[in-house]
Amino acid sequence: MPVSFQHDGFLANSMLVTKEPNNTGLKPGVHLIYVNPAGLDRLKQGGSTKYPDGTVFVDDVREFSLDDGVYHQGGHEFITTMVRDSKAYASTGGWGFQAWLGGDPTKPIVTDPVTQCFTCHTSQSSNDFVFSSYLR
Prior knowledge:
Largest sheet: 5 strands, antiparallel
Shape: globular
Strand content: 35-45%
Radius of gyration: 15 Å
């Protein structure tokens, strides 16, 4: 899956995950979740409508540290993407999944998108397999 880490997306949501395991299944870190313009209106609307092909979600997961009650964002742990292409990724709900260690595009870490990604996303089938909601 081709990727560009330069994006013209919008910050859709963010969260700080401080421990693992946790009930979200997310790795610890500062999660900065972006959506590109193709998917922004659908994200804002919510509901069960499918996202348009060309929608891209990016989760930029950063290290963090705690110093005197202040959380500080650090370097990339990894970057994950979901790319909507209903034909190319029909076996995974129309979404292509990938993640890169340290945010380095030469270090992909997803070898089996079904078991590593899509299996968890099936719980969100009523939201077109997307966990994110728009930060209002």
